[in-house]
Amino acid sequence: MPKFTEEQQRAIDLEGENILVSAGAGSGKTAVLSERVLRKVMGGVPVNQLLILTFTKKAASEMKERIRKKLRKANLTHQLELLDSSFITTFDAYSMAIVKKYADNLNISSNLEVMDDVILSLKEDEIIDEIFKEYYDKKDINFYKFLDAFTFKDDKEIKTKIKKMVASLDLVLDLDDYLNSYLDNYYKEENLNGYLKEYLKLIMEKDNYLKKLINDFLGMIDDKYYNKVIDITSNYLASTDYSEIREGLSFKIPNLPKGSEEDVKNLKKEINNKQAELLELMVYPKEEDYITSLKNTYPYVSMLLEIIKKLRARIWEYKTKENAYTFLDIEKLAIKLVKEFEEVREELKNSYQEILIDEYQDTNDIQETFISYIAKNNVYMVGDIKQSIYRFRNANPMLFQEKYDNYKVHNGGTVIDLSKNFRSRKEVINTINDLFCHIMDQEIGGANYLDGHAMIFGNLTYENKAYVEDNCDMEILSYSTEDKEYETREKEAFLIASDIKKQIASKRLVFDKDKEILREVDYQDIAILLDRSTDFTLYKQIFEYLGIPITLWQSENAKAAYDLEIVKNLFLLGKKIYLHEFDTTFKLVYTSLARSFLYSMKDALIYHDLMDNNYQESKLYQDFKELVSDYEILSPITYFNKILEITDYTNKLTKIGTVATYRARIEYFYKMISNLEKKNKTLLEVTDYLESLCDTDLEVKLSLSKSDSNSVKVMTIHTSKGLEYPLCYFAGFSKKFNDSDNKETVFFDRNYGIVIPDIEKTCDLITKKLVVAKNRQEDISEKIRLFYVALTRAREKIIIVMPEQEEVKEVEDIVAKEERLNYHSFMDMMKSVLLKFSNNITNIKEIENISKDYLNRKGIVKEAKGEMKPLSFIDSNYRLEEEETLHFSKETVEKKTIKEIELMEYGSHIHELLERCDIENKVLPTNITLKEEKLLNDFLNQEFFKIHNNMKIYKEYEFFDYENNTRLHGKIDLLLVGNDNAIIVDYKLQNTQDRAYLKQLNGYKKVIEKKLSIPVTCYLYSIIDEKFIKVSMI
C-alpha cells in the first residue's frame, strides 16, 4: 500500500457530506480517487453502487483498469464480477443509458441513436431555406425589414448566424419557456437599466486606469512639458460623470521632447491606446441613449425569435422521427426524467452510495443540474480549477470556484486541498510558483494562486536518490530577431533541436520513475509543447533533416487532410458524369483528381485536355465512365469499394508518406459511408453529404494510436494534459491568441441575450461590448490556466524559447488587471514578469546548424506538394449570355505557350490560396508548402490590414447589376466595407501597370459606389512583389 500524505488520506477517508478535492498538478488525485473506491469496496460497498463519472472514454477506461488491478490485487473476486456492469463512464454515456432505460416515460423508443453532426447540419440548412422561402412567398414586410438590416451580399450569412445562435441557445435549460418569455423579460426597464449600470461600471474602470496612466506620465516628464500636458488633460482628469468624461476625452497629448526615454514613449503610446478604447465605448452623447438603442432592437429580435422557434420545432420533429438526438439533447432528456418523474429520481438517488466526479473543473451547467437531482449530500468531486482549459466544450470553471468558496466555510460541503506536487523537482515547482503568483488571481485566472493554490514540493526522492548536479532551474533561450532570413518558428525549431543534441551529448541524468534509478537522458524523455499544431510539419522537417527522431502527437481531423477532399471528389466526379453535367464544377473536380497522387497528370496536359475538350479520352474519365454505367443500382459502399479498386488508392498512398495515418482515415470514411447506407442514404445523397462535410466548420476527429518510440514528442498543450516528461521545451510564444468569436455581430450570449448591432447607427450596442469585455477576461483567464497546464508537464526542467525582449517592466506584486487584459500571446505573459527571471535567460548569439537546406529534403515536402489545388479557369471560356452581359474581367483568350500556362497556373493557384486565407484571424489554409506559407503570411501581415482592421471583409464578392439595359457581372477578389468608405482589392501576379486591369477595377468601382452610396478606393495586390498598390481612377 502506498504511503499517502495526511491531506491525501483525509481525501480517501472522509465521509458523510459533499467533498471537493482541489488537487493541484502532480498531487496524486487519480491515485487518491481510485484508493477511495478500493477503501469503500473493501468496506462492503458493492462497486456497482458507485457512480464514477469523467469526461473522456480514455479517462473512464483507464480509471476502470486502475480499479480492476486494485480489486484483483486485493483478491475481491465478487467485486471484480460487478465491475463491468458498474457505471465508470462519461457523462454522455451515462445519460444515454438512463434515457434508454426510462425511454417509455419520455414516449420515445429505447433504440435511440446519436445524431450525426453533418446530417443534422444539412437538415438545418434545408429547414432554414424552407422557412425563409415561406417568408419570401408571403412577402412578409417585417421579414424584409429584417433582411434589409442584416444582409448585404445575400441571406447566406444571416442563415449561418441563426444556426450558430440555435446551437448556443441549446445550452439553456427550459429553453421553450426561455424563448416564449424572452421579449417580456429582456425589454423590462429593470433589465435594460441593469445592462447600462454594468456598462457604466466598465467605463469607469477604463476611465480610472487611463487617469492613473496620465498621472504616472506626469510624474516622469520635465516641468516645461508637464505644463503643456496638464493644460490639455486637466478637464479630463477632473471629470467625474459620463458627460464630463466623454467631453474631456477630446485631448491630444503633444509630441514628446527630443531625446525622451523609451519608457516615457511607451507610456504615451499606452495612454493613446487606452484613450481610443474609452472613446470607442462612449458612442452615445447621453446615458439614456443606450437604453433607447436597446429598445430599438425589439422588431429585429422579435423576427429572429420567430425564425428560431420555427427552426427548433421542425428540427425536433425531424430528430423524433429519426429517433436520433445530439448528446446535448440526451443530457437534457436525462434531466427531464429526474426532474419530472419522481420515481425515476428516487430510484437513481437510492442506487448509489456515492457519486464520484473526476476532472470536476470541466463540468458544464447541464451536467451540474443533472447531478443535483440525483445527489443526496454524497457527491465527491476531484479537480483543479487551474487546469480548466475546455471552455470551447462549454466547461464552466466557475461551478468549481463557487463550490470551493462555499465549501471552504463549510456551506454545503468540505474542501480538501492537495497542494503537494510529487511530479516535479523543487526547481520546477519554484519557477511555476514564482511566475503564477504574479499573473493568476481570483479575478483573472479563476484562482487566488497565493491562497491555497501554490504548489508545495513533495517528492523527496529528488533530494536524495535522484539528486543530480545538473542545472534544473528554468532556462529561457533568447534569440535575436534582427536576422530576417529565417522565420521565428524556424529559428525556434533549430534552436530547440540544437539544445536537445547538447542534452543528449552531455549525458544529462534524469530519474526513471519505473526503474527508480538515474539514467542518461534519451529522446523519449523530451517533449516540445506548442499552443497549436500549425508548425508541426516544420518541426518534423527540421528534426528529420538534423537526424533527430521525432513523433507528432496531434488530434487527427480528417477534414484537415486533403484525402477527404479526394474522397469527396471521387464521389462528385461520378455524379457529374452520370448527370452529364460538364460544368465548371466538373472541370475543377476533374483537375483536382488529375493532379492528385492517384493520377499525377501534368498541369499543362490537364489544361489542354479541358480547353480542347479532350478529357473524355483520359484514363481518369474512362475509369469513371465505366463505373457510372451502373450508377443507379450501385450502393454507396459498393461504389466506394470500386473506386478504391479502380484507382489503386491504398497502394498509391505510399506516394504521400505516413501510410498508416491515411489508411486510418480511409477506414473512417468507409465506416462513415457504411453508416449512411444503413440509414438508407442513396449514392447521390452520400455525395451531397460529403460535399457538405467539406464545406462546414464541423471537425471530424479520428483516434490514432500514439507512438511510444524513442523519439522527441511534439504536441499541443491541450494534448499534453495528463502527461509528463523529464524535459519540456516551450515555443511559439509570439503567436497571437485567436479572438475571432468577438467579431461576431449577431449571436446569443447566456448573460446578455440575443446580441445584434445598432441598425440605425451601424455600431455595436452595449450588450456586444459587455460580451467582448466578459469574453476577454474569460479568454485571458483560460490562457493563463493553459500556460499553467503547459509548465506543469515538466518533471525536471523547463526550457522556454523566445525572442529577445528589450523593454520589460518591474513587477513587485500581481500584474495590473488592465495589463493582463492586454495579453495577446504567451509572450506578453512572460514579458510582464520577465525581470523576475533575468538570471534564467541565456542569450543565443548564433543558432547552430540553421539552414534552408531542410526544405530540399524529400518526403515531407512531397506530402505537402500532394495537395489538390483546383486551377482557376478563364471566365471567357464559360461565359453565358455573352451578347447581353458585360463582364468586368481582363480579356485573356489568346493561345498560350507551355511556359505562359505554367505561369498562369501559378498565379491562379496562389490566387486560390489567398481566397482560402482567413484574413480576420490570420489563419492559413492547410497542406501548403513552406514557400506558400511564407508568401501568405507576408500577405496577412501587410500594414494595409492593420490600417483597415475595422472594416467588414467580403472575399470573392460576386455582383450582378444593370446599366442601360446591359447586365453587369463581376467577381471582386476582396471587398472591405466600412461605415463611410469601401475598398476594392484585386490580386495580380505582377503586371500591375496593365491598363486592362485598370479598366476592370474602374468597372468594379462604379458598381459598388452605386450599390453602397459611399466612396470606393481601389488597390491591386502584386503577388510576386508582395505589396498593395493604390490605383488612381480617372
Largest sheet: 7 strands, parallel
Number of strands: 29
How far from one another are the termini? 87 Å
Mean pLDDT metric: 87
The structural class is alpha/beta
Helix content: 40-55%
List the total number of helices: 40
The coarse overall form would be: globular
Structural description of this entry:
The chain has 1034 residues and is α/β, with parallel strands linked by helices. The strands form 8 sheets. It has a 7-stranded parallel beta sheet with strand order 15-18-14-19-22-11-23. A 6-stranded parallel beta sheet has the order 3-2-6-7-1-8, with helices on both faces. Strand 9, helix 21 and strand 10 (456-457) form a beta-alpha-beta unit. Helix 12 packs antiparallel against helix 13.
Q: How are the SSEs placed, and which strands pair?
A:
Blueprint: H1 6-13, E1 19-23, H2 29-42, E2 50-54, H3 57-73, H4 77-83, E3 88-90, H5 91-101, E4 113-114, H6 117-138, H7 141-150, H8 156-169, H9 175-180, H10 182-186, H11 189-218, H12 223-238, H13 242-248, H14 262-281, H15 287-295, H16 298-322, E5 324-325, H17 327-340, H18 342-349, E6 354-357, H19 365-374, E7 379-383, H20 397-408, E8 414-418, E9 420-421, H21 426-439, E10 456-457, E11 475-479, H22 488-505, E12 509-512, E13 517-520, E14 526-530, H23 536-545, E15 550-553, E16 556-557, H24 562-579, H25 584-595, H26 603-611, H27 619-627, H28 636-646, H29 649-652, H30 659-678, H31 683-695, E17 701-702, E18 712-716, H32 717-720, E19 725-730, E20 747-749, E21 753-755, H33 766-791, E22 794-803, H34 817-821, H35 826-833, E23 841-844, H36 860-865, E24 885-887, H37 898-916, H38 930-940, H39 943-947, E25 952-963, E26 966-977, E27 982-988, H40 995-1012, E28 1016-1022, E29 1027-1031
Parallel strand pairs: 1-7, 1-8, 2-3, 2-6, 4-5, 6-7, 9-10, 11-22, 11-23, 14-18, 14-19, 15-18, 19-22, 24-26, 27-28
Antiparallel strand pairs: 12-13, 16-17, 20-21, 25-26, 26-27, 28-29
Helix pairs in contact: 1-2, 2-3, 3-4, 5-17, 6-16, 7-16, 11-14, 11-33, 12-13, 17-18, 17-19, 22-23, 24-25, 24-31, 25-26
